[in-house]
Write a structure and sequence with these properties.
The complex is a heterodimer.
Chain A lengths: L14 E5 L5 H10 L4 E4 L8 E6 L4 H10 L2 H10 L3 E5 L1 H6 E4 L9 E6 L10 E7 L3 E9 L4 E5 L4 E6 L2 E6 L3 E4 L10 H9 L32
Parallel strand pairs in A: 1-2, 1-3, 3-4, 4-12, 5-6
Antiparallel strand pairs in A: 6-9, 7-8, 10-11, 11-12
Chain B lengths: L2 H13 L4 E5 L2 H10 L3 E4 L4 H7 L8 H10 L4 E6 L3 H9 L4 E5 L20 E5 L2 H9 L4 E4 L9 H19 L2 H10 L4 H10 L5 E4 L6 H9 L4 E4 L1 H4 L4 H13 L4 H8 L26
Parallel strand pairs in B: 1-2, 1-8, 2-3, 3-4, 4-5, 5-6, 6-7, 7-8
Helix pairs in contact in B: 2-12, 7-9, 10-12, 12-13
Chain lengths: ~230, ~290
């Protein structure tokens, strides 16, 4: 997959960044690589150069939010967003992007949704749910909800992508995508494909049959977190 | 536990990667930990340093105290059951906390058997001193591993030993010819199939955190650079002079473990760390890491 020709590390190529403060970073990078998208771990100001999009991963929103503020990365994200960088938040990431968070103050506030943190209960209430999303997820795929938040309502400029019972599980505005579940924890590449196109990048084509990458395993993320051989 | 439930439990631990899990003994401490950026709290009546000092039998904490902490924070709540005490685990599961730590910090209830964790829906984290111990716990259904270290000492030396041992044994597994794996697995008490998986993945198949003796931002960054996926801090925070400040500093150093400049910033002006203990000064029967096998 690594292209060692003239553009050795592809640094000139627009990339999708994954905010690398805490949480499921390797899992997103694994999915982006499967689609042939250049990915960058983002934790310093200079990492934001040439980013077409940014993924704010799942983890604990209170932890990620603290670290964002500590190093003024929140301001940099908002600046880059205003310059056209698209953003996708999964789970904790969706909480960080919401304009309204029930019982706490908003963090980045980049999409007009109201969200409730840890809305299902404890880990014993985590679950998988099979869904289809017209235009995005053509075949039923299993979505993973881990201590997930619920989107309660969305503003006028926000489209609901997936409604389940009394809550919204996925939504988007022109520049922001939010999912309260974790596509990076399944073999489903459809959301990363969709986001890459939203960022005007060219992901490797996956048609209906390839939406679930058959080579994906529960442990696929570990190839990005092997022990050092030293 | 069915396979899907185990998968979800392993994946919750993945979402804790790069984070710090802090021991707390009351609601106030739990809130300090959450505000400081902890990814989870471990609710217990006494931190390991006090368990060590008080002596006697250490058991599961009062469920009322664990429930109060669960009520007070929105981050995951973990609690400890004694090694082999599957009824304490049943109680914690009914209480619906997020993760059970089958922990050597409490007095073991069974010196032969650990809990059969496959019988539960709730996830378990277990301590290990070496690869064989880690893989035996995974075989029993643990969804997350941590080093044992030597809890309540503020001395990182045992956690370093355990992590280095695991890394060395993983490297040995990777480099040996396949026909030697059977003997290596036998000699080290490793379930063979999981040993093969580790050889292929070049690491544990689940998240591995550092625990036992971490007291400073530098300790946390050290364990992360040795290849841990995240950090448990027990007595190190609330036995120090300024817990809120130290908690924030350890969170920062864990996230930026590879950046000495940021670890330096995190290390400045924290006040007194917890008083530490030389491992050699502890009578052998009071060492916690030797509990369980």
């Amino acid at each position: 997959m690594n292209n060692h020709s003239s553009d050795t590390d592809g640094r000139g190529m627009p990339a999708i960044g994954v905010l690398d403060l805490q949480g499921g970073i390797s899992e997103h990078i694994d999915h982006l690589e499967r689609l042939g998208i250049r990915s960058v771990r983002v934790k310093e100001e200079e990492d934001f150069q040439n980013l077409a999009g940014l993924i704010v991963p799942g983890g604990e929103s209170s932890c990620i939010s603290r670290l964002l503020r500590l190093f003024n990365l929140d301001e940099i994200i908002v600046q880059q967003f205003q310059k056209g960088m698209k953003i996708w938040g999964t789970c904790a990431g969706a909480i960080l992007l919401a304009k309204t968070v029930i019982n706490e103050s908003a963090h980045l506030g980049l999409i007009d949704i109201e969200i409730e943190r840890n809305s299902f209960g404890s880990q014993l209430d985590s679950f998988q749910y099979e869904a289809v999303i017209p235009g995005l997820l053509k075949k039923p795929a299993s979505l993973t909800f881990i201590r997930a938040p619920k989107i309660i309502k969305v503003g006028r400029d926000v489209n609901v992508l997936l409604q389940i019972d009394d809550y919204i599980a996925a939504a988007e505005s022109s520049d922001v995508l939010v999912t309260v579940f974790h596509p990076e924890l399944t073999g489903c590449l459809a959301f990363h494909h969709y986001f890459a196109k939203k960022c005007n990048l060219k992901p490797r084509d996956v048609d209906g049959t390839e939406v679930l990458d058959p080579t994906w395993r529960l442990t696929s993320w570990t190839r990005l977190a092997r022990i050092s051989r030293g | 536990m069915d396979a899907k439930r185990y998968e979800l439990n392993v994946q919750l631990a993945q979402m804790l990667k790069g984070g710090v899990i802090m021991d707390v003994t009351n609601v106030e401490q739990a809130k300090i930990a959450e505000d400081a950026g902890a990814v989870a709290v471990m609710a217990l009546e006494r931190v390991p340093a006090d368990i060590r000092k008080d002596g006697g039998v250490a058991r599961m904490s009062d469920p009322a105290m664990i429930a109060a902490i669960k009520e007070a924070v929105s981050i995951p709540v973990m609690a400890k059951a004694r090694i082999g005490h599957f009824v304490e685990a049943q109680i914690l599961e009914i209480l619906k906390i997020d993760y059970i730590d089958e922990s050597e910090v409490l007095t073991p209830a069974d010196e032969e058997c650990h809990i059969d964790k496959t019988k539960f829906s709730i996830p378990f984290v277990c301590g290990a001193r070496n690869l064989g111990e880690a893989l035996r716990r995974i075989a029993e259904g643990a969804a997350m591993i941590r080093t044992k270290g030597e809890a309540g000492t503020g001395n990182v030396v045992e956690a370093v030993r355990h992590m280095r041992t695991m890394n060395r044994e993983i490297r040995q597994l990777i480099n040996m010819p396949l026909e030697e794996v059977t003997g290596f697995a036998k000699a080290n008490g490793m379930p063979y199939e999981i040993a093969l998986q580790v050889r292929k993945l070049e690491r544990l198949p689940v998240v591995n955190f550092a625990a036992g003796g971490i007291a400073t931002p530098a300790d946390a960054a050290l364990m992360m650079q040795l290849g841990c996926d995240g950090i448990f801090v027990g007595s190190g925070i609330f036995k120090s002079a300024d817990p809120a400040l130290r908690a924030k500093a350890i969170v920062k150093a864990t996230a930026y473990f590879n950046d000495p400049k940021k670890v330096l910033e995190a290390s400045m002006g924290l006040g007194e760390a917890m008083a530490g203990l030389e491992i050699a000064s502890i009578p052998a029967e009071q060492l916690l890491a030797g509990r369980g096998w």
